[in-house]
Amino acid sequence: MVQNRMLLDEETSKTHTFAAPGYSVEQDEEVPADMVAEESGPGAQNSPYQLRRKSLLPKRTACPTKNNMEGASTSTTENFGHRAKRARVSGKSQDLPAAPAEQYLQEKLPDEVVLKIFSYLLEQDLCRAACVCKRFSELANDPILWKRLYMEVFEYTRPMMHPEPGKFYQINPEEYEHPNPWKDSFQQLYYDTIEDALGGVQEAHFDGLIFVHSGIYTDEWIYIESPITMIGAAPGKVADKVIIENTRDSTFVFMEGSEDAYVGYMTIRFNPDDKSAQHHNAHHCLEITVNCSPVIDHCIIRSTCTVGSAVCVSGQGACPTIKHCNISDCENVGLYITDHAQGIYEDNEISNNALAGIWVKNHGNPIIRRNHIHHGRDVGVFTFDHGMGYFESCNIHRNRIAGFEVKAYANPTVVRCEIHHGQTGGIYVHEKGRGQFIENKIYANNFAGVWITSNSDPTIRGNAIFNGNQGGVYIFGDGRGLIEGNDIYGNALAGIQIRTNSCPIVRHNKIHDGQHGGIYVHEKGQGVIEENEVYSNTLAGVWVTTGSTPVLRRNRIHSGKQVGVYFYDNGHGVLEDNDIYNHMYSGVQIRTGSNPKIRRNKIWGGQNGGILVYNSGLGFIEDNEIFDNAMAGVWIKTDSNPTLRRNKIHDGRDGGICIFNGGRGLLEENDIFRNAQAGVLISTNSHPVLRKNRIFDGFAAGIEITNHATATLEGNQIFNNRFGGLFLASGVNVTMKDNKIMNNQDAIEKAVSRGQCLYKISSYTSYPMHDFYRCHTCNTTDRNAICVNCIKKCHQGHDVEFIRHDRFFCDCGAGTLSNPCTLAGEPTHDTDTLYDSAPPIESNTLQHN
């Protein structure tokens, strides 16, 4: 049953509040509670009368027209075959000879008993009873029966008359010209179909309220062009029991004039027999067109058509409010907003749709808040072709493709959403997509949390991007974007990956505790990476490789489990004004043709060296401060050839600069001071150029050159170093010009002249350069060395051999020989002499790629 009721200011019944969402049900004393049937079970939804039925009646299969209420003819159920699912009234009457029992009922049963029986019938049952015979017609038209029914349905205490469109008034029953004003009002307000109710409302141009009872309403043409209110009315879960479906065309269409219309608490289905597009033109369960703004509330919306969408909002001025709806299990798109449409979409459940849960296209610009978008068989939200929208506090998860996809100039704003557990990525921005993604939680996606590619330029700001099964943010294929203020951590691959000519701005992020590296720039990647904090990652804090040229500026890169910044395989770029500290390996490594510009950085606290340049690495290393590293401040080795200018390399726990294994390089105008080992150590066939450097206040030698290395020394100042200024091993030839070697402490020469063991001034942590010997009497090996004073004193008379002038510490003084040293005092036990500083640990990052 469909009811249409005007909301007027006249007095209405306060004891019979109609059962609809937001209304309570109160029983009149005249209707005993035990006469009201409760609706339950799978067949209950097929009985629209159950809201107010006084006793359980058999299921009905058809309903009469308005004329049946007048008792003028028998039921014509054939005219209402499309309503057969709404089993509301008795079956068809049959023209059979009257049996004695029937004759008794019709002719001899007292009126009081017949009226008592009729009091258990509803309005359409009474109309059918009136068709039986003249006596039943008179009794079934009793005003008392109709008054009770009327007040239960419409709540009015006086009949509301609706004689013509746009005209409503209440009457006093005593003054009405006909005997039964209650039944006459029923005829004027009562509609058998939703179409009829809508027609009565829309033709009259008033704001109508239509209650739709339990049942399945099939293939009605529901085009809404006025601000009507249509509410499902059923006990329990109302929307499960009021079902409106169409098999041929869109189930609901809201057209211009339907602003402020309301539809709520019902199931709306589009269920075509042919699921494809071959036999119908419209493919939407619910359409909202231009210049209308209805409210769709607490509805279940389903579509089994494989094209179109469950809900389509299109056109300028289309601005619905859709809230608390369930748009799920559709074989197409769930919610489609296009062609400049807007609207507010809040607290909806959108799941398990074959295509996107939400499409926004062609300047559509909705506001979508607190929706639950999940388990889609495609993408969760898809904005494309200039689609926009404001998405806030949505929970988007477990979709088969990306949680949120942006394509082709789309520009959505996504704020405080959770995008997680996607079967591919979290957010995918491509083909010149844009968008603002602000303060979201993006986590536990199978691929990258955010993908940006093909000239797209989104803003990714203030998000938490974490625990992804691959990377955090992946920018490739000429991607751009502003990546700012995010917390990126715990991802299986790099926190941010930039490749293939991409050029984002990455700033003010925290990138930490990754299972891989922090930032990975490769395959000609670019970008400005500034003021980030990159720390505690398993591999390198930043990788730059394969022709990439990023600018890294004012970052804090620290506490990594391998290298701080790693340039390899022709990685280039600029590294300036950064703090790089406390790494397990070197602060910076440069190798295999890489040629970065490294300037004005502070590189300190490394458990290995400060900067390691090796395997044909290059680079311009200028104006940096390199200090407090556990090993050399700068290592140059294996055919590398960097340029170091105006750096301050100091307070290292090993040497200042160590060049060996064919290393070269230009060292110019550097200050190298207060290092535990040699200010500059040159070894093993290396040939650097040192020009205008100051090497001073070292705790060992100023410059040491050994192992067939050569060097060019021009205009350097070497002073106040403990062991001495310049030390050259046997067989070393250098080119020297205009150097000043002055005021060094010359502790080695002083110890030799005093007859002291050199171990006394070096222990096993330093390697003074002087003449060293072996003692065949004491069975020393080629790994042992003995200073000249121990040869004279401790090994006097032994078979000794001069080896060369080089770096060593005295094994006699260290107590490692069988003959005790008489010069060094209490011996300390140690291993064999090492002639060079311990080599740096090279990154094995490539083994993890």
Automatic annotation (TrEMBL):
Localization per record: Chromosome; Nucleus
GO CC aspect terms: chromosome; nucleus
Statement: the UniProt record of this protein carries the keyword NAD: no
Key word Metal-binding present: yes
UBR-type domain location: 755-826
Keyword annotations: Chromosome, Metal-binding, Nucleus, Repeat, Ubl conjugation pathway, Zinc, Zinc-finger
UniProt-listed Pfam families: Beta_helix (PF13229), F-box-like (PF12937), zf-UBR (PF02207)
GO biological process: regulation of apoptotic process; ubiquitin-dependent protein catabolic process
Residue ranges that the Swiss-Prot or TrEMBL entry lists as coiled coil: none
Region (Disordered): 1-49, 61-83
Known partners and oligomeric status: Component of the SCF(FBXO11) complex consisting of CUL1, RBX1, SKP1 and FBXO11. Interacts with CIITA.
Protein name per its UniProtKB record: F-box only protein 11
Organism encoding this protein: Acipenser ruthenus (Sterlet sturgeon)
